[in-house]
Amino acid sequence: MRKYYDFFKLRFATGIQYRMASVTALTTQLIWGLMECLAYKAVAEASGGSMPMDYSSIVQYIWLKEALYVFFNTWSSDNELFSMITSGDIAYELCRPLSIYSMWFSRITGARIAETLLRCVPVLICAFLMPRPYRMTLPASGAAFMFFLAALFLALGITITFCMLVYMLCFFTIAPQGWRMVLTGAVEFLSGNVIPLPFFPKKYLFLVELSPFAYMQNVPFRIYSGDLAGSGIYPYILKQIFWLAALLAAGTALWKCAEKRMVIQGG
Amino acid sequence: MIEFNDISKSYRIARRGSGFGNAVRSLFLREYDTIHALNHISFTINDGEMVGYIGPNGAGKSSTIKILSGILSPDSGSCLVNGRVPWKERKEHVRQIGVVFGQRSQLWWDIPVIDSFELLQSIYAIPVSKYRDRLDELTQLLHLEDLLKTPTRQLSLGQRMRCEIAASLLHDPKLLFMDEPTIGLDAVSKIAVRDFIKKMNEEHKTTVILTTHDMQDIEAITNRVILIGKGQKLMDGTLEDLRLAAKSLDPEGENSETDIDHIIAGLYARLNIM
Known about the structure:
The structure holds two protein chains of two kinds. By secondary structure, chain A is mainly α. Helices cover 72% and strands 0% of the residues of chain A. The radius of gyration of chain A is 19 Å and the shape is globular. Chain A contains twelve helices and no strands. By secondary structure, chain B is an alpha/beta fold. Chain B has a domain at 45-96 and 173-271: Rossmann fold. Chain B is built from ten helices and nine strands. Chain B has a six-stranded mixed beta sheet with strand order 5-6-7-3-8-9, with helices on both faces. In chain B, α5 (128-142) packs antiparallel against α6 and α9 (239-249) packs across α10 (260-271). The longest helix of chain B is centred in the last third of the chain and has 18 residues, at 187-204.
């Protein structure tokens, strides 16, 4: 646990090292969130109220997505790790008495939690102060909130183990761009970051729910907003646990494989 | 104690000629060359020794350091460092070694150096009191007082290298492997680094293996020199042995240089390892 905390601390320090970046991030998130609220308002009015999610749930979903943006995005993954692989600076990482997988896992987890804490508080405060239809509200019940928290951390685990898989694949291809572009593009869309998954056509939704992507941000956000409630929550949580275990196993297996065949080039 | 026994390592490298034609051709027909980076190298190093590992560029110096550090596995041969096979028991092995790669950085770019140190403290699980003492000692010897609070990105190369060396020694390793620790440093920093290495050896009996192209490093620090070229060990002895060997290879004495760089250059040329 100690190392997770230390990576967290370090990342928190890195996060506040650049003050202007925090301010601009906040503005971006607020404006983007508000724009999405307005866009869905237009959709809601045009569709005459027959939407797959009701409007207040969508507003919750949008604000959570903006507040927890860093928690779940895959494209802005830790670039230092990619450059460590391509530049060979990973040589130093290999000289540490830990496995690269567990070290990087704690590094990314710490980084994400630290950065999210820095960003989410001001975004959430603003979201709770928005005028009526666009305002963020508390979840329906305490139980819903507990489920939300559980699903949130499971989803974070799935996102990170998925990113770890991408890092591990880089050991085999050297150039990270290809993997990153395809996989992160897929995640962005299929995890409900662009539009919430209930808006997907039924047929496609069925396919998406067979992949791990549907168990990232989709689950906690919909629990919070009340779109998923009661016994409907359980199968989602179970599948989250399954995917977390599966991705973790795949990532560590891939690392074992990479560790054996790795050659650090250059002097 | 380091036993390096009959180690070989080769790399496969894809090659092609220049130009568009060759590029297209290599799409279908890849030509590979095998480079023998290390060819049956053996040596033994005792505790507390300071060994200079020299040879021209591409001789296999870094490969040796990587094998000793446990981050590269050789094709054949055996290696024991304090009774462990480095690449097989990597985690236990690296606890007792410190490594400095002169061309790479282990410090976090954005934040003050001291934060990187504290992370290393937790990675190596160094007890707090021990860490404090060690940090004080290193700070004093490497003159880091003013640097610790500076973000790494704002350090000059020499300042950064002193911090890198301190970072590699925080966990009080018994063995120190340094791959070109003085590369690109100015005279003052070089001397600081050399004095520091000598002190570490005297006070903590740290075994030091160092690769360098700077013969003054070798003169100042080491009492034993291993010369390799084209993956083969050519000489193992004191610097004086090296001088004598150079002389015996050049009996007419047309190159009766006294400058160590010229002696070494002459030696490389005569041994045909360039």
